[in-house]
Amino acid sequence: MILLTGVIHTVLTLVVVRYVRTRVKSSSNDSILKSVLKIDFIILAIITATVLETSIWAAGFMYFGALSEFEESLYFSIITYTTLGYGDIILDNQWRLLASLEATNGVIMFGWSTSLLILVIQNTVLNKKKSS
Fold first, then answer.
1. 125 or 6: which carries more pLDDT confidence?
2. With 90 as the cut, is the pLDDT of residue 12 above it?
3. Does residue 132 have a pLDDT over 80?
4. How far is CA 59 from CA 48, 56, 98, in A?
5. Which residues contact 131 (CB under 8 A, 6 or more apart)?
C-alpha cells in the first residue's frame, strides 16, 4: 500500500511539474482570479490523490480482515492517514502496526504534497512579480 501511494504521488508530481512548466511559468499576465484557480486546481489534485490513497489503505484493511465495512474502513483510513486519530475506531492488536505505517505514510505524502503546492505558489507569485 505504501508503494501504491508512492506511485500515485509520483504521477501527481509529474503532472504538477508539467503543469507548472507549461501553464504557470508561461502565463505571467494572468489575472488574480486565474492565478487563484491554478493554485486551487493543484489543491483539488492533491485532495483527489489523498482520497485515492486512503481508499487503497481502506481496501487493504478490509482485505486483511482488520475492518469489515468499507465506509468504516475508509473513515478509519482517513483519520489515520491524516494523523488526526480520533480513537473512535480501534484495530485489534495484530493490526496496530499496520495503522501506524499508514500514519507514517500519510505524513510523508502530506509533506510531499506541500512541496508541490509551494512550487506552484512560488511560480505563480514570481511570475506576477516579473511581469510588474
1. 6
2. yes
3. no
4. 16, 5, 13
5. 28, 29
Instruction: Give the cell for residue 31.
Output: 489575472
Q: Which helix (H) or strand (E) holds 24?
A: none
Q: Please name the amino acid found at residue 39.
A: I
Helix (H), strand (E) counts: the chain: 4, 0
The 3 state secondary structure assigned to 46-87 is HHHHHHHHHHHHHHHHHHHCCCCCHHHHHHHHHHHHCCCCCC
- The sign one gets for the Cα dihedral 13, 17, 22, 25 is positive
Q: What is the mean pLDDT of residues 25-41?
A: 75
Percent of the chain that is helix, strand, coil (3-state, to 5): 80, 0, 20
Matching residue, cell 511539474: 17
